[in-house]
Prior knowledge:
Strand content: 15-25%
Helix content: 25-40%
Bound molecules: zinc ion
Largest sheet: 5 strands, mixed
Distance between the termini: 48 Å
Radius of gyration: 20 Å
Amino acid sequence: MAKVGRPKSNNPREFTIPEIRVTKEENRMIKLKAALYAGNSVAKFLRMAAEKYKEELPDEKCLCGGKMKVVLDTETFDYEIADEKVSIKVNNIPMYKCENCGKMKENLFLMAALEEAIDHEIIRSMRERQKIPEEIDFQSFLEVKTTSKENKKVHV
Length: 156
Ligand SMILES: [Zn+2]
């Protein structure tokens, strides 16, 4: 017997983000914005908001007293896949560099999330029988590739 159900999406929503506790005011704001911008769907509104969110990173202070500024750096991640060594270069990773002593500081939470993103990229490439990329731009992980018409823009 043929399976009946939703048509298979080529970009399924198979992950769930944790429940988020909010105040009464935040709840009101999110519901109003979801009604205004996202057809009353809080989930859709949060996806749209996450996709749009971008912020200038503030300077930090180095232990030497110097000012640490954001620079875009490249890191190489090494993997062993089916007894083969694979190196993936990720370009444009935001890091801090001290203007005074030259010390570099990376964001450990960012690096952990980035490693997870690369893992997913490797698995996706293997599943779709594509070559594992040798080079990835960090920025490409900050975008959602979508082909649907769901996000057609109407500005209010
Ligand atoms: Zn320094």
